[in-house]
Amino acid sequence: MRLSWNEVRTRAAAFADEWRDAAYEKGETQSLYNDFFRIFGVRRRSVARYEEHVKKLNDDSGFIDLFWPGVLIVEQKSAGRDLESAYEQAGAYFDALPDHEKPRYILVSDFQHFALRDLDESKTDSFELKDLSAHVESFGFISLLHYGEKESTETHQLISTDGFYDSALHLLKMAREALIYISLAMHVEENSRKRSRGNNDEKPTPPLYPRQIDSIDRI
C-alpha cells in the first residue's frame, strides 16, 4: 500500500539526517539509493538496477549508476562534483538507449545536492539534501508507477492537502444543494397530497430553505 505524504516526509527527513555526511560515489551510491526508494515504501530492486552497461553513440561504453527502464536514470557523483557534467553524461546514456527504454526523468546528485529533470515537462527540481522532505512530491512517480496506479499525463501530480480539502468542500456544498432540492420536492409532494385529500384548511408545510441548512457553510 502506498504511504501517506506525511509518512514519506518523515522518512525523507530521517534519510537526510542519516546521509548528511555521505560523499563518496563508488562506496556509498548503492546503499544511498536503496534507502532512498524505501522513503516511498518501494524496494529498489523491484524496479531499478545498478551499473547498467550502455554502449554510447560514439562507440564508447559506460555504466548507468541506477537505471529504471522507461522511467529514470540516476547519475551519481562524489561530493562537490559538477552536476552539469553529470547531466551531460546521463544525457549521453539516454541518447544511446532504445526508444522504449528512454526514461522520463534524469536525477543527478553529489550526495548533498539533487537535481531531478522531468524531460516531458522540461522542468527541473533542484534542492539540497537537507530540504528533501519539502521536495518528495517531485518523486511521486516512484510509488505511483510501482503500485501500478494510473498516472495523469496532464498534471502528473498527486492531490495536495489543500486540493483534498477544496474537493471535499465542493462535495459538501453539492450535498447541501441536493438537500435543498429534496426538501422542495417533498414540500410540493406533501401539499399536493393534502389537496387531493381535501385538506385545504391545513397550513402548508414550508420547505426547508438554505438558511436552515447552514451547518456546511460553517465548516
Model description:
- The protein contains 5 helices and 6 strands.
- With 219 residues, the chain is of the alpha+beta class.
- The protein has 2 domains: 154 residues, tt1808, chain A (Alpha-Beta Complex), CATH 3.90.1570; 57 residues.
- Strands 1-2-3-4-5-6 form a 6-stranded mixed β-sheet, with helices on both faces.
- The longest helix has 36 residues.
- The two termini are 31 Å apart.
- About 4% of the residues have low confidence.
Spatial ordering of strands, largest sheet: 1-2-3-4-5-6
What fraction, in percent, of the residue positions are helical?
Answer: 25-40%
Proportion of strand residues: 15-25%
N-to-C CA distance: 31 Å
The total beta strand count reads: 6
- Give the uncertain stretches in residue-range form: 150-157
Please tell me the total number of domains. Answer: 2
**Largest sheet, strands/sense/barrel:** 6 strands, mixed
Mean pLDDT: 85
Q: Which value, in Å, is the CA radius of gyration?
A: 28 Å
Q: Architecture of the largest domain in CATH? A: Alpha-Beta Complex
